[in-house]
Amino acid sequence: MEARTEARAPQKLTGKGQATRARILEHAAELIYAKGVHATNNEQLRRAAGISGSQLNYYFPTKESLVLAVIQWQAERVLTFHRSERFTRFESLDSLREWARYYIAYERSCQEGCTLGSLASEIIKTDLDVRTELASAFRQWIDIFRDGIERMQQLGRISAEADPTRLAHLLLSAFQGGMLLAQVARDIAPLEDALRAAIDHVRAFAMPPAEELEDQ
Prior knowledge:
With 216 residues, the chain is mostly helical. 69% of the residues lie in helices and 0% in strands.
């Protein structure tokens, strides 16, 4: 295997170069998802992205550098969405329910599954040296949930007895497993059941509102 080649940093490119690189990554992610890593070749990617061989080699000199960049690109999309104000930093049960409602209502959940999870399950079977990047992406995703649960504890919304890391693992595992089953069945019910059960478990640690405590 060739030595690791880090993805070329987008900030070093012109605006046009960044747009070209992003287009390549988008098409590469789609091809890898549809065909797999080994079945995706340069010719397919050149045609899909409308680029030349020299352009592809400039941005991604090796397949490993391309796959690494696809992981980073896909992870950034997922993490940015989960860090958005839509879910208010996951510091309440309502924000967790809003997150679940979004994916349950998303009409392509049953078709696409989790884009990052699907990418990981495909790439992890190869001999490409990108496991560290995959692990980092999922660790950051888990950290989003864990940090939210820790804030719930600081705000007195859930008990200090709750283990934020274990609950974060539960939430992401429910999401990944539910997405896979929903994709296989073409039915959103497995995802809905998994997310509701996971959130119900978090709710089991909920503290009563302060006014209720004062009345006791």
